[in-house]
Amino acid sequence: MSRNNATIAGLVTAALTAGLLTFALRPPVAVAPRETPVPAPSQEKTVKKAALLQDVNATDSLNRVDASRHMQQLLAELHGKPPENVPAYAKELQSSHGYITMLLWMDLRTQEVKTFHSTYPKGFNPQHPQLQQYLKAAKRAIRGHQSYESPSIVVGKEKYYFTARRDQEGSTAVIALINQKVLGRVADHQLKNLRLIPYPKEGSYRIESVHADTLQDIKVATGHDNENASHYYENEIIVRFSNGHPTKAQLQTITADIGGKPPRKLGYTYLFRSEKMNYSQLKTYFAYKWHPQYTEPHYIYLTNETAFENPADVVTPNDLLFSAYQWNLPAIETTQGWKLSRGSNEVIVAVVDTGVQANHPDLKGQLLPGYNAIQSGSTPDDDVGHGTHVAGIIGALVNNGEGVAGISWYNKVLPVKALDNSGAGTTYSVAEGIIWAADNGAKVINLSLGNYADSQFLHDAIKYAYDRDIVIVSAAGNDNTERPGYPAAYPEVLAVAATNASQQKASFSNYGDYIDVTAPGESIASTYPDSQYAALSGTSMASPHVAALAGLVRSLNPDLSNDEVVQLMRDNAVDLGTPGHDKYYGWGQIDIYKTLQAAGGGEIPLQLYPQHVRQQMNELRLKLQRNP
């Protein structure tokens, strides 16, 4: 027998043996299913409004806790310092936390008072009767050796509250007026994210809405109408030519014919914009004159929201908001999983989203420079909040006493801004963001965004990343519909639905046969712009839990391929609903500890050995074909 034939025979034997062992050691089937509640369309608005209110209330609570901590920290830093040091500390705190509208420092021994103001909003009246009432109450509480926190006060269109703290010796105190504009931002964000309103509005930027199946015009009058709607730019078209790339002369002919400017090119595909033709006319023109491989609308995508240590005990981080607000991390065995992997700065997780606040104190050192696909040459700053929230779920600093804990301690987050300040982005910007991340070191890409139209252009970008061994994770969507959303429904993508604290389908979560796994997605506390924190609900929040787990797996066992990482997360999920795969939970809710246990370190897990052997056989077959 030749050496090559012997090698192939050995691989076949190994594959059969591993297959039998995998079957023999397969865990028992899960217990009987629980009923999966799916709200009827008539109930959908009610349950989504309840989720929005829950997010706003949770955001209010966790930001009050965070603001109180900063006041205590300021007092600790000023302890024993001369009064002339106070302005510098106050200025630094206010500059990094813009929601502190006023800061008042009191020396209770000398009765000296220093007041520091941030920029008040237009029309703000510091002499507002309720403001003065609660300020006096705060001062009384401080002199009575008590802390103080007022109810919310409505001034104009915004809310405020006072918080007051004394130092341990009772010699100094601080009173702060906190602007609660974050509550309005979260409410507005979730109206869009949970599809409670039509989004985006028609008429802006010449946007049209079409039925995702038929591409016939559709009117989006309510949030629920988004279930069937896809949005696109009416005077633009995506074209992939059959015979490669047009010549320069041909492109000039096209731009003259359609009354446009030179197209944007990405990979093999071109984006044309016309000043005189709509999409239907453009499609007819290209089909008749150029016979392209495909044409499609330019769709708009919306938000769907160190050396390794191995301690013996479960790690409970000291992050301020962890114990009270981050129910989601214990629910997926994160703290247990940290015994096995806390990530690696060699494994990069890209967040293709609205950008990330680069100087958020809870993301310090966790972010790479990133890329802006919306405005070329600009930094990927977050002007929405969605991307900062997603990034914090993945990689907020752990054990720093600040805010929240991320799932990964050491994986670097690569921010890619592909959605604009409305929270929407086009096929081109999302595809460009994916390709840029793939070319710049990403091992995992998170896509908390979606559209119900199947775009070949976007699929090409997904395949580009997949072919480069990248794990691609995407949110399923928030319309409580079985309609497949994209990119989640592409076979190269791991589709994530959302669960609540009871391990049931979140009321808003999309579902369907394409769902792979679920993860927590209801009132998830994470980082938010202006160095704040917010609780948001959505499959957008579920998806980064899975992307972070993929980063931990690839850090623990770099030899695993993207398919093997995905299979491990599916195989080790906690089965929910109907035993086995079902349309509400996929293979179940991810379990970080079980998945990392199965991943091992530096070797191929048993259940993946048949695939690994197959891959070796394919590589050997290709080698033999090249060198017979």
Features:
35% helix; alpha+beta; 17 helices; 628 residues; 19% strand; Rossmann fold; seven-stranded parallel beta sheet
Write a concise synopsis of the structure shown.
The chain has 628 residues and is an alpha+beta fold. The strands form five sheets. It has a seven-stranded parallel beta sheet, sandwiched between helices. Strands 1, 2, 3, 4, 5 and 6 form a six-stranded antiparallel beta sheet that branches. Strands 7, 8, 13, 17 and 19 form a five-stranded antiparallel beta sheet that branches. Mean pLDDT is 83; it is low at 1-33, 202-229 and 305-313.
Topology:
Layout (H helix, E strand, L loop, with lengths): L2 H22 L16 H38 L7 H11 L3 E8 L4 E6 L11 H15 L4 E2 L3 E3 L2 E9 L5 E8 L1 H13 L13 E5 L17 E5 L2 E5 L7 H11 L5 E3 L2 E5 L5 H11 L4 E3 L2 E5 L18 H4 L2 H4 L2 H4 L10 E6 L17 E2 L13 H10 L16 E6 L6 E3 H13 L2 E6 L1 E2 L5 H11 L4 E5 L17 E7 L17 E4 L3 E5 L3 E5 L2 H18 L5 H10 L20 H8 L9 H18 L2
Parallel strand pairs: 14-16, 14-18, 15-16, 18-20, 20-21, 21-22
Antiparallel strand pairs: 1-2, 1-6, 3-5, 4-5, 5-6, 7-8, 8-13, 9-11, 9-12, 10-11, 13-17, 13-19, 23-24
Helix pairs in contact: 1-17, 2-3, 2-5, 11-14, 12-13, 14-16, 15-16
Family: Belongs to the peptidase S8 family.
GO biological process, one term: proteolysis
Keywords: Hydrolase, Protease, Secreted, Serine protease
